[in-house]
Amino acid sequence: MNSHHGSFFGPSDAMLLGTDYPTQLNSKPRHLQRQEFFPQSSSGITNPESLFHGSNLTGLFSAADIRNLTAHDDSFDEIKLMSLALEEGFSPIEVSQMFEEPGSDLGPSLNSNHCTTSYSICCEGSVGYSSGVKSAPSHGLGAVGGHCQENIKHSHVEYPGDTECSAEATLQQFLQNHTYNQVPSQTVSTPQHHQQMWMKKSNEVKDGYHNSTATNRSRDECRAKALRIPFSVDEIVSMSVDSFNAMLAKNQLTETQVSLLRDIRRRGKNKVAAQKCRKRKLNAILNLEEDVCNLQTQKETLKKEHSQCSKSINQIKQKLNYLYHEIFSKLRDDQGRPVNPCQYVIHCSSSGSVFIMPKHLAKSEQKQDNRKEQKQK
DNA sequence: TTGTTTTGTCATGGA
DNA sequence: AGTCCATGACAAAAC
User: Fold this and answer.
1) Residue A3 domain-assigned?
2) A 257-286: CB within 7 Å of strand C
3) Residues 163-222 of A with CB under 7 A from strand C
């Protein structure tokens, strides 16, 4: 399947791609599809800021709102599951904070074996709802991991998840596990370590990092949902700086949550920038190709012009030669003898008078004239 | 299966 | 100092 274009956020993609690059040369039907999808966006939000300003965000974080936002879209089943858990008085922030505290004993409860069904919250439509127990009791919290699809394929990681089994725990795993590139064996259970790993640069996890790039977005989507923010990734990306900062300020988000939101925004912005950049590059290439074409045409024109001029010059030279000999054939010296054109030349003085003179004199006079001209310059 | 193109991401530098 | 944007480079996905 196409892992980039799962059903979850496709509609909002249209807003991003469809409007920004209507003339994109390599536009493909799927982009058009996205545009068609847009009116049915799960949130129905065309202007995220307007939604934001009109809302009490604390309220927006509530289970009911999440349910409202997702209930009309079958593809949001995972979120509905979370909503069920939320109805039971779950406070995401509190739990999140608990997770951030070293030595929190919430972890072990997550690994309880009483879950009979496991599901993976991630995403992309292919997500898994796998029945049968594959719980890994020996894993620590981190090892349970928030790996989305892509990492799941490395090692089949699943999330505990019936109504007894806390969906909020799963949520927190999402919130906590930012280590896109870690395979489960690399994960360490403490939240602090997650934070550290999150901060590591790509070269420290080079082996894994590019493996996961294609699915970072879907992870972002999962985590955005886990944050209970009723904005799609695209909305997070496209809202104004002020709105974004206000959102960060108004909600008591943990450092981890803020970091995730900023990353989602950064990646989204950069994606758009890359698309614009590529479009510009393509246009630049097209323009240069056009320039080359025009210059080649111009070159051909100049070539023709040049050959035309050469022909004219030759004709004029021939005419001149003919006239020259014509003149000499009619000239006579003092004794009435014909003048030899090999010994004499026709000379035009600067005053405009024309006369014939011996060649050797003409040469010396020409030298003098040249000197005069150089001095004048 | 292999080669090419497209896409998302990160790092980096400039504004 | 922090933020945003543009772009080269890279790797995975798509073709």
Assistant:
1) no
2) 265-266, 269-270, 273-274, 276-277, 280-281
3) 210-211, 213-215
Residues A179 and A37 in one domain: yes
What does A265-331 look like in DSSP terms, one character per residue? HHHHHHHHHHHHHHHHHHHHHHHHHHHHHHHHHHHHHHHHHHHHHHHHHHHHHHHHHHHHHHHHHH-
Q: In what order do the strands lie in the sheet with A117-119?
A: A129-131, A117-119, A159-160
Of A266, A281, A296, which marks where a domain is finished? A281
Q: Which residues constitute the domain of residue A329?
A: 287-376
What's the confidence (pLDDT) of residue A363? 79
Chain B nucleotides with an atom closer than 7 Å to a protein C-beta: 5-12
| Model confidence pLDDT, tens digit, residues A262-318 | 888 999 999 999 999 999 998 888 888 889 899 999 999 999 999 999 999 999 999
What is the spatial distance between Cα A119 and Cα A128, in angstroms, rounded to a whole number? 6
pTM assigned to the model:
0.46
∠A309-A312-A318 over CA atoms, to 5°?
A: 140
All protein residues with a CB under 7 A from any atom of strand B: A 4, 26, 28, 180, 201-203, 209-210, 213-214, 216-217, 220, 263, 266-268, 270-271, 274-275, 278
